[in-house]
Known about the structure:
The protein is an alpha+beta fold. The protein has helices spanning 3-26, 54-68, 76-81, 91-106, 116-121, 134-140, 168-185, 281-294, 296-303; strands spanning 30-36, 39-45, 149-152, 155-158, 191-195, 198-202, 210-215, 227-233, 236-242, 247-250, 253-256, 271-278, 310-317, 320-326. An 8-stranded antiparallel β-sheet has the order 1-2-5-6-9-12-13-14.
Amino acid sequence: MNTRYNIKTKHILFLLLSCLLASCETDQMQQYEGFTQGTYYNIKCFDKEKRNLQSSIDSLLDEFLLTASIFNPNSIVSRVNNNDAAVVLNDDFLYLFSLSMNVSKQTNGAFDITVGQLVNAWGFGTQKRNELTSNEIDSLRQYVGYEKVQLENRVVKKENPLIQLNFNAIAKGYSVDKMGKFLESLGIKNYIVDIGGEVLAKGNKKGKNWMVAVECPAMEKTDQQHPMISIPLNDNALATSGNYRRYYEKDGVKYSHTICPQTGYPVNHSLLSVTVKHSQTAVADAYATAFMVMGLEKSLAFLKNHPEMEVYFIYNEDGKMKTHEVGEW
Length: 329
């Protein structure tokens, strides 16, 4: 027996085993969970340096609330709504405003951040729900219209000081993108960020695509949620808007939290949910809301000229749940 050969072989095996163990440790996934913007967040990533990012993540998300939360009276958007002349607009606000204006123009106002007064009056904002009359709704519509606000030298100019901005239909998506940029700034290339169902995935999960489920809409609040489809996600984002979670009923009529800017009323059509796939979560988030306002037919007509988006519609037809896909799902 060649003892020298045996020792050399054992040494090589030891080195290989050490490398494998180190590789397993490097490939260990970190997970961070918490609460923000009235919902959950869940972040999974592969960080070779194995840093504890929990406090940094929470700080970043809390900081964003100081920009876009209508529930914080000291946030930038709240101060703009209160016509505070001393408010200073940061880059996050400016980006949200500009992107919102662009989506509003593209969708002829189906997406509109000036719906704040209506959202509050219907009880889906900072106020309790009122018993609204048609005259009251008509009176509130004078404060709605994206063309009634603009940016001038980093200052929001309103046509009427009672106009109220609301970023809720885009804020979660933007905060997902913001979190993705934070992780990438640390050299993290493989991650998935989920904030309240708005998701951004980059890289992969140990060589496999990240998988994201689109929920089957609940017809009633007591119905259990279950996946409708599972989607492989790699270097893109998903955002879903639906009317099956947040609504209230009166006299047998369901009132959705999605408000149509043009009519002033909650939308009432066959669409149950819309899931948009795009490279940016904020863009997907905004258009998912816009399509919920537009309805299925108008959305499909719009998408003929926008191949950059893939959309998964779930709608109700004669009491039966049906789906329509635009793009590859």
